[in-house]
Amino acid sequence: MKPPTMARGAVPPPSPRPQRPASADLAATLVDLVRSHALTTTNDLCDATGMGRTVVAQRISQLVRTGLLAHRGKGRSTGGRAPRELRFRHEAGTVLGVEVGVTSLAVALTDLSGEPLQIDERPWRSTNGPDATFDELERMIDQILAAMPDRAPLVGIGVGLPCPVEFSSGRPVSPPILSGWDNYPVRERLTARFNVSVWVDNEVNAMALGELRTGLAQGRDDFIYVKVGTGIGAGLVSAGRLHRGAQGCAGDIAHLCIDPHSTRTCRCGKVGCLQSYASGMALAREAAALAESGESPELARRAAEGRQLTAADISEAAAAGDTAGIELLASAGHHLGHALASLVNVFNPSLIVIGGGVSLAGDLLLPSLRKVVYERSLPLATRDLAVVISAHADRAGMVGAALTAVDGLLSADHLETWSHLLEPQVEDA
For the region Disordered, what residue ranges are annotated (predicted)? Predict the structure, then answer.
């Protein structure tokens, strides 16, 4: 029989996903409830899942045998026999969190809670190209693994890249800053080299996840993480989950048009982009102009010493009372505020966390940013809104990349493909 012809413009139905056993879904749910929601007894887990005690107990026993869960003693009795409590064994495996910046590389070996066990960071120009960058990263990873020969088994790698990433394929797509990176097979390269599963995301999404799990956004269901470094980007968390969008590029605010009549050309080829006004790259360009003209005596002094001026120089100059530096940071905050006010009105977060190198300007950047956000956003949207500087911006990307891998590993699609590699522990007392 000839298949029916689709109408022009019709969307084809999605390909059917391979069926996985219902037991995999239950196992992943139980691990998540113990790991993230602090439900520790069989009765709690039965109530949360709506499943019978026998089925839940069987799956718990299997997860204890594989080493992902462990008994940790007796809970409080409510009249009968005291229940045995469970815990997630964060020490059962290790993952690598890799943060690729435009001007730096960072790698963290963490446990399954994202707690760093070993860290290596170094300056690096990712404009050197993807092959050279991953050659360097592989050397860093080899050194970290060699430094901890008795660690738990390596079970996954998470990578954050400073460009748009198609999350489903793990490949960068048309990076405006990184020539030669388009469609580079990051996942395939690291999987072949280290023989573990690899997840790749935009670095700001990784930072948002790190902030959600270990930073100021813990307990916040709806928040925005904004990275202001060499470039600019945002990670969106909605209902407690990272929102990547259909292709994985949600939150790419760098190219929001701040001024359609601008003559400033962005690296993407368009004019008036936020990145050309408030990024570290834009601020460095403005700082060089202020130093050359003599409008900023402090920046001129630094430039005369042969230094290539950065956003950090602007922050230090402003902190020392340099008027031009103060005005430059206030202007960057003003432009960021306009972009974020639009996000606040559309997304209605309860928290905005500012991270990245430019965030080190702290109180020199925030006043003008907050002023515009509160003036330009709806009163209801800002009634309980907090705008803060990240408390651990230097580690959010590494930790978030590691947790991206952990979330993938503990999903129903992957849980049973690797958990047999773990060694169960003797029951806790």
Answer: 1-22
